[in-house]
Predict the 3D structure of the following.
Amino acid sequence: MALQVSFRVVGLYCYFENLQLDGVEDTSSVESVMQAVHDAKSDFSFTHMDMDGKQIVNSMSYTFGPDSTTPYNTSGTPPDGKRSLSISLGTPSVIWQYYRSVTGTLNGTVCEIKLLTRGQPSFSDTALNYYDPFFGAIPPAFDIHTYNLTWRLVQIQMSPQNQAKFMAAHAKFLNAAK
């Protein structure tokens, strides 16, 4: 059975609503889900790098075309073409952050529940359906229809130590790509 996922990358006009993904389950890692999205939609791609054993998304690309869906909250239709966004290290730094949620019904009402975690765990280790028990529990009567995965670039202030770790990992990634 295929897992239904809505996938969005803010800034790239990349949006796949109710995509049926084979080979992944709700317990699959966010990374596995992203790879399944790429396998199903080759106009989307991503790269990642290792930072002290933690996988970090480095860049994402998407080619918007005539068959693309314009994401909600977007004014007008963007022009066709390839778009790429990457992390940027500096003061401040810009890094990728993901959000997970589920859309379903509770007592006949359609609603969305955010799947919360403390901090931003590595996308390669976090299950799509993981919900930190610190934040409570999803009601047992909630009927899940779709998992939602959204990525966006966020601007943050990093400590000099963390910035040095990111820069070292990024340099290693760039050298390996040559």
